[in-house]
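To: structure subgroup
Subject: Chain for Friday's discussion

All,

I'm putting the inputs and outputs inline so they're searchable in the archive.
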Amino acid sequence: MATDLVTRTGKAAALSAADHDQNIESVSGTVTAKVNDYTVLFTDQNQTIEFNKATVVICTLDAVATILAAIDTTRFKVTIKNIGVARCAIGAGGALIDGETAYALDQYESATFQIDSAGTGWNVLSRKEAAAIYATDATGGPVISETELDLDALTPSTWVKVGPTGSGATVIWTALDDIPLSAGWAELKVQWSYTKSLSAAMQVSVLMRLNGTTPASNASRVILHTGTNADASGTARSDGISLVKVQLDASNIFEVNVTTTASPTTSAAFALVSGYGSN
């Protein structure tokens, strides 16, 4: 005995959630491209909304009550994907998303959202984050940007906040501008060359830490420590290159402290961004 397939585009009493009902236009799980701000509606059920905008784009999840009133299932879900260079800021009109009032996706990140069991907010079922990235710049060098952070120019023996354009950090390092705000950490290539002459000892320490943190011991934050001792007949020299990872806050800010004991006769120390990623 054949059974007719009943389809429709709106809510009706003929079918119910127990029959695994959903809007026919959402069954296919299609991808809908957006280049401007957008509000996710009940008709977007099971679809992927893909944003591609050069500036911050706003995605609003429609009120849960409005969505539930329009469909016959309490398990509405939608996937949001951001391929634009700017952040996609996601809100739900005051409703909570995994316990928070706001959510964000950076470039090449996506997440699937589902109405929670209480029917009052949203759960994040899954999230795909940007993986660790190691890139070459336009000249083919093993760094993301040729723009250096001059460590010697920083205020000595002081924790200095370093961040990208618009971050409000004390020192703006434009090499950080190309790192997504959800990266979590950056890998830095630190290079130095110090000399000391005429019967004198010299030590230099470079420390880095997450913005706003106060570790119990600064010794745990040392990423470079070098020293040399010149005798009366000549000059001692210390040179080297090191790759280190530094944790970034939500604005891609970190802190640096350069401390010297008996300042070097000559010095050159800088950092380049060689990669970034998330845990």
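Points worth raising on Friday:
Helices lie at 64-70.
The longest strand covers residues 185-197.

D.
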